[in-house]
Amino acid sequence: MWLLQEWNKSVQTLQAKTPLTERPKFTIEDVAMKIAALDREVKYLVNKIKSYRPKTKTKPAKESNTTDGGTNETKTDGTSRSHLINVMESG
Question: Residue 37 is part of which domain span?
């Protein structure tokens, strides 16, 4: 954001220094080019976020053996892929 403000300030200063009889230094085409460059950068970052896949930590499954029933239960961390996708889209 500050980069855009600095660019705008420098262009406004340059425009103020030019005499009124000369062509303007700051034109609509300049603004359109700057917006196009910023739009391209935003699209790149949005696509980068969409394609981001967090590294999953592979923990060995914990098994708890009960002596009374003889059942084996495997516990996981409880996070599902859809939950991670929802978190990424909302944030």
Answer: 26-51+79-91
**One-letter-per-residue 3-state SS of 20-72:** CCCCCCCCHHHHHHHHHHHHHHHHHHHHHHHCCCCCCCCCCCEEEECCCCCCE
- pTM, two decimals, is 0.45
What residues pair up with 81 in beta bridges, in sequence order? none
Inside any domain, residue 61: no
Work out how many domains the chain is built from and give that number. Answer: 1
Q: Residue 72 falls within a domain, yes or no?
A: no
> Does residue 18 contact residue 25 with C-beta atoms inside 8 Å?
yes
pLDDT tens per residue across span 7-38:
888 888 988 898 888 888 888 898 899 889 99
